[in-house]
Design goal:
alpha+beta; rod-shaped; three-stranded antiparallel beta sheet
Length: 104
């Protein structure tokens, strides 16, 4: 029984690592409400693309505000996708122990 559980845990660990790698190719797009700034970020929270409208380049303070707001929204979305995917893999690979689901 212990050997089976260890095997399952190793298998789950490998699936978690595969999922982490796959998250590098999951792209999340976020934009300011007026689409003057667009961000593309991976589910591992790596910025891939930033597109800035010319009119934002005229006002440094406004651009900084747009960057902060839009990047924070993109990071929050990416974090949720990442955590949900990893939690699903981990939960699927956990041994069936009665009552364990209360903690997940």
């Amino acid at each position: 029984m212990f050997g089976d559980m260890m095997g399952k845990l190793k298998e789950t660990q490998a699936r978690v690592e595969e999922t982490k790698k796959r998250m590098n190719s999951v792209l999340i797009d976020e934009a300011s409400t007026d689409d003057l700034l667009q961000i593309t970020i991976t589910a591992n929270r790596e910025i891939k693309k930033v597109t800035i409208a010319n009119e934002l380049l005229e006002d440094k303070e406004q651009l900084e505000d747009y960057l902060i707001l839009t990047l924070n929204k993109a990071i929050a979305k990416a974090t949720k996708v990442n955590e949900d995917e990893l939690a699903a893999v981990a939960k699927d690979g956990m041994p069936n122990i009665p009552g364990l689901d209360k903690f997940m």
